Amino acid sequence: NAGVTQTPKFRILKIGQSMTLQCTQDMNHNYMYWYRQDPGMGLKLIYYSVGAGITDKGEVPNGYNVSRSTTEDFPLRLELAAPSQTSVYFCASSYGGRRSSSYEQYFGPGTRLTVT
Amino acid sequence: AQSVAQPEDQVNVAEGNPLTVKCTYSVSGNPYLFWYVQYPNRGLQFLLKYITGDNLVKGSYGFEAEFNKSQTSFHLKKPSALVSDSALYFCAVSRGNSGGYQKVTFGTGTKLQVIP
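The joint structure predicted for all components is written out below.
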């Protein structure tokens, strides 16, 4: 099992450019998440999905979009990149079902994004 | 609203000494509590969790944590620290449930430095 994989590992964007961060998991988890991590701020949830075709906003969704067409893939789209989106982005997945919040999350290695 | 507090930004401990990383939480109803570890330039890795049952939970790499309901705490402990334990540690809480998505709130992290 590869677990959760993310591409790219690093990216530099100019203000106003767009990009898609890719995330794939091979554990057949139905829950998937996107977080951003800023120094000293912990993790902030951007979007989450409880299954293919179902997505919802987290704490900080502005400037981002997601889709979930398959169980395995959960790409994050940045439109019109801004310096405030400079961060490290993590994708995660977990089992979901009865007592879904009792299950731990599995994280990808992250994408370090700089917007200049 | 649920929350997690990790009161220490950094904890320094000598190799071989016991370590404690503190976590307190606030959530309505029964809590599900988690500890994750993050090594440099890596994603978070699950260490252990409390769902129900015995208040002392044992996890990976010799770590354990004690759930204290009256003090709303879930401190991470290890009897003898290793230099390789040096990393960033996150506590997380969600509300116990019987189904459906429940928000997970992460603390801001505590950097553990084990001194040789």
